[in-house]
Amino acid sequence: MPRRPRVVLPHVPLHLIQRGNNRQICFVADEDYRFYLDWLKEYASKSGCRIHAYVLMTNHVHLLVSADRGESPGALMKALGQRYVQYFNRTYRRSGTLWEGRYRSCLTQAEDYLLACQRYIELNPVRAGMVAHPADYRWSSYRANAQGEADALVTPHEIFLALGSTAEHRQASYRDLFRSELEPGLVEQIRQASNGNFALGSPRFAEEIAALLGRRVTPGKSGRPRKLPEPESGDLIM
Q1: Which of 16, 143, 148, 174 has the most CB atoms at less than 10 Å from its CB?
Q2: Structural domain count, the chain
Q3: How far, in Å, CA of 65 to CA of 198, rounded?
Q4: Which pLDDT value is given to residue 233?
Q5: pLDDT of residue 44
């Protein structure tokens, strides 16, 4: 079965997941995380991408990206992936692939879903039982978005900027969002959209994206396709 084309549009936020091949470890030492983030910043700038949120887990990466061009995220991940694999293989005296063949992604409706997606990304270490609070995890954008810690990699989205008139107000409003957990249904919706390369948003958002791209961007109905009735005599078979 052919792979579904990516759902990517300029300036529409994209939640992107890159996993280690067979879920193998991709980050071993602190230097690995630092090099990856440095190169992420370099290639994001070169490809015309802005990083709104990120988390580096031991065997996968989540990014929330906006791009100037539809091809920019692919260019970013190709350059970054090649550079990091070369470093990782050389450092740990290994060979072969490190990442899964394709990264997974979903277009994200900014108005209603962007902040939820940021929380989903930054809460990954909490859901994994690695820390009790996202501020306790070093390799994510939480400290930049919620606490104002300097991070040249992070570019706030306009939806985030609308949380308050000052940086302190925005950070406080953002921290307040973490006082409650993401609803399980929303977590599942984000996972399904990201893993399936679908659109994450309202039905109207999905319809607008589908119209722009000329194809379906939501999960199809499960089960076997409905069998069409046999044509009656005189009917045309198209």
Answers
A1: 16
A2: 1
A3: 16
A4: 34
A5: 98
